[in-house]
Amino acid sequence: MPGRGGDERTETQPSSRNKRAEIVAVATEYFGDNGYEDTKWADVAAAVGLGPTALYHYFESKQQCLFEILVEAVEDARAEFLRSGQGEFAAVFPAVVRRSFERSDREARRARVLVAEQGLVRHPRRAPREEDARLRAFALLKEYEAGWRDLLAAGMEEGAIPAVDPDLLSRAVIGTYNSVWRWYRPDGRLGLDEVADFFVPRLLALAGLPE
Amino acid sequence: MPGRGGDERTETQPSSRNKRAEIVAVATEYFGDNGYEDTKWADVAAAVGLGPTALYHYFESKQQCLFEILVEAVEDARAEFLRSGQGEFAAVFPAVVRRSFERSDREARRARVLVAEQGLVRHPRRAPREEDARLRAFALLKEYEAGWRDLLAAGMEEGAIPAVDPDLLSRAVIGTYNSVWRWYRPDGRLGLDEVADFFVPRLLALAGLPE
Predict the structure, then answer these.
(1) Residue A206 touches partner B, C-beta closer than 8 Å
(2) What is the pLDDT of residue A34?
(3) d(CA A6, CA B164)
(4) Residue B35: which of A120, A165, A180 has the nearest Cβ?
(5) B82 is in which domain, residue-wise?
(6) In-domain check, residue A38
(7) Nearest Cα to B156, choosing from B94, B90, B99?
């Protein structure tokens, strides 16, 4: 997706934004298909027709690019979460859960990369742009997890679901949800609707929402 | 844990086996604490007092060592699974699930590494010993997943749990279970008993076992 501005990124010219988006798309595909570690940054450069110096203008490194992918993925998830609006837990929570399975093939691949590589946000980097991207990804992930925890805690306060440790419950919900992206493939045997039909009611049950 | 023999590994002299075990223990600790990618193989060598040539005798590379750690972790899990014995699903499944949370601090750290890095088993390696270890880890992981799937399918056949897609159900159970190791720390706020008390009944409910 095109860059969202901010002086950290490129000048906001359409061709720069498009090029950045192209790099992100190719990197996401390669990281998803081959794994982040086995993807050669040089192959990404070649695929978008950029030499190392030109590529450096957009991303200092493969790792910075990964962190930026994570930032965008989590920003989108957060925005979707916030769009579910206010209201009773028993209405809001199922809507949020259902919506979290509405993913295009590209978004599913990006979710795969996020789930596979999110552990990398925990470890400080030396290179400044990498470290800046890592910190943003790390902070956003924490906010994302807190969002689920706060929603579940609100449900408990409402009496909509049994009161349990909200840390444990949010980890269980997020953990079960995230695990789907490790194996789900857009070209696989099961369509995402089928997967959602299976997981959504079970995630609601996990939270303790009566059927 | 000490090497289990087989010509792939070192001569079966106690000091070799102990050294190999020491390398595995240090590597597991570093991979768990710093992440596999950020761990320098040279630091592992230094910590066990071996130069690169001597270390190469045990492990061709950091990656081969990781795959061997995965092999041992999954072999232990499989052995534990098989020890749960035959019998009615309603007795066997809860026992297996409960036992899967009985982990020493070292085993918890190893599980963390397994869950964080298991994606790496999907991608072929060039170096022969690495590739051999990868294939073993990959095959064992497939067997491990099949074990859960077969157990759940047997439960469905018994009528002990509702019949659903056993692939989806085993993925849900394994995914929820595995997610614990991403965040659980032996020195964290929550003890493993507390974590088990939360997750075990929810895993049973996920499978559809009546309370």
Answers:
(1) yes
(2) 87
(3) 48
(4) A120
(5) 61-207
(6) no
(7) B90
pTM: 0.89
Residue type, B150: D
Q: How far is residue A8 from each of residues A60, A63, A135, B195, measured CA to CA in Å?
A: 11, 16, 13, 41
Inter-chain residue contact B199 with A116, CB threshold 8 Å: no
Q: What stretches of chain A adopt beta strand conformation (E)?
A: none
Which tens digit of pLDDT belongs to each residue from A166-197? Answer: 999 999 999 999 999 999 999 999 999 999 99
Return left, alpha or beta for A208; rule: phi > 0 is left, psi -120 to 50 is alpha, else beta. left
Residue to test with chain A: of B30, B31, B34, B37, most A Cβ within 10 A: B37
- CATH number, domain containing residue B129: 1.10.357.10
Do B63 and A38 form a contact (C-beta atoms < 8 A)?
no
> Does residue A165 belong to any structural domain of this protein?
yes
Q: Which residue type sits at B157?
A: E
| A198 domain-assigned | yes
- Per DSSP, B195 falls in state H
pLDDT, block means (10 residues), chain B with 211 residues: 43 78 94 89 95 91 94 91 86 95 93 91 91 94 94 97 97 98 94 97 95 73
Q: How far apart are CA B191 and CA B184, in angstroms?
A: 9
Note whether residue A132 is domain-resident: yes
Task: Tell me whether residues B37 and A120 touch, CB distance under 8 A.
Answer: yes
Burial A1-39 (b: 16+ CB within 10 A, else e): bebeeeeeebeeeeebbebbebbbbbbbbbbbeebbbeb
The number of domains in chain B is 1
A174 vs B contacts (CB less than 8 Å): 179
Q: What are phi and psi for residue A118, nearest 5 degrees? A: -60, -20
Phi, psi of B71 (to 5 degrees): -55, -50
Q: Which value does ipTM take for this structure?
A: 0.88
CA gap A28, A107 in Å, rounded: 10
Pairwise CA distance, residues B184 & A89, whole Å: 28
Helices (H) and strands (E) in chain A, counts: 9, 0
